[in-house]
Description:
Layout: E1 2-8, E2 18-26, H1 31-48, E3 51-60, H2 71-83, E4 88-91, H3 97-107, E5 113-116, H4 117-128, H5 132-161, H6 169-208, E6 212-218, H7 224-232, E7 249-255, E8 260-266, H8 276-281, H9 287-290, E9 294-300, H10 306-319, E10 327-332, H11 342-348, E11 355-356, H12 365-375
Parallel strand pairs: 2-3, 2-4, 4-5, 6-8, 6-9, 9-10, 10-11
Antiparallel strand pairs: 1-3, 7-8
Amino acid sequence: MVVSFWFRVYSIAMGNPRVILIDVISSHTKPEEAKRRLFELESLTHTYGGMIVVKVIQKRVTPDYKTYIGPGKLQEVVELAELEKVDIIIINNLLKPHQIFNIERMVERKGIKVWDRIDLILKIFQKHADTTEAKLQIRLAGIRHMGPRIYRMGLELSQQAGGIGTRGSGETNIEQMKRHLAEEERTIKKQIGKYSNTRSLHRDRRQRLGFKTVSIVGYTNAGKSSLLNVLTKKGAYVADELFATLDTRVSKLWLPEVEQQVLLSDTIGFIQDLPPQLIQAFKSTLEETVHADLILHVIDASDPYMSEKIEEVEEVLVALDAAETPKIYVFNKIDNLKRIPKVSLRKKYKEFKPVFVSCKDGIGLDDLKNIIGSSI
């Protein structure tokens, strides 16, 4: 059984790529979850710079093996794309190489690109990467994601040129592609390893000097960089968009109550269904979190999906082997709320010593410093 609907979105944006969004969800997905998934996809698309002209939501019992969205829906989307002069079709799922390859074949002559969720996130990462290391990590994630798709293209050439039981030029292309990507992956990993080794030496030195380390984590756009700025005057880049920063920043923070200095670090934000290959690619950057003495989990207290996002950040911490590190829950953006359920939140998250702050207005920062001092 397949249930779907689509609707146009009108925008005054000019010069941005025109985009169709498609989200395929289970027939059991609750309306609130479907709404949240689509909203996050919209936010990612706007962060990239796309202009959304059509949104499509499709309910399926199981994804279509060949195209994920099914031949009928695919034909409908292609017709919509032509009608709306679309540049990119973005599917809010992780597609198998042959699925996205089959869709691309339907639209390639029309000049339309086809991306899945990881493609979109990688494009945003490319937009925000400032350092050599971040660019290397994005390249590594791209190779791991795109490699199988490239192999599929080579297989298609093989079937067209080589025939059954023969060794055609396409087969040779596949082997060349595999070797090239494998060599490039080894080179990139070696270069990333140098940065990782440098950070390891820095951590060893800090430990010898007796410095404690505090790592800021949280869902992307929760206010991590803002917190780093107000606590340390670091001047980190802050923007109201997803994945505004990708690199690790480390600053000193003085705790007056205990007369002690700690090192505070901030890095990439997390997101719903953050693909494992992206976590692995950025693992060297996230080492500051893995080796921290204390974690500040920054939470947007005004976010209607706050509870779900807390759980998703905790899942990433588990993947990083940092779940057992002591944590403080920092509920940020309280200036956006008229009423804050502090009593219920303190009760629910008692073990994480909840503290309520506004980076914008400077509220609760002294309390936070005191709690850090008593926890370090």
